[in-house]
Amino acid sequence: MKSKPRIAAIAADSTKEPQPRAVFTKEFKLAAVARMKDDNQSVSALAVELGVRRTQLYKWAAALDQGGPESSFGARGRKPGQKESETAKLQRKIKALEQEVEILKKFDAYLKRGKR
Question: What is the DSSP letter of 76?
Answer without folding.
Answer: -
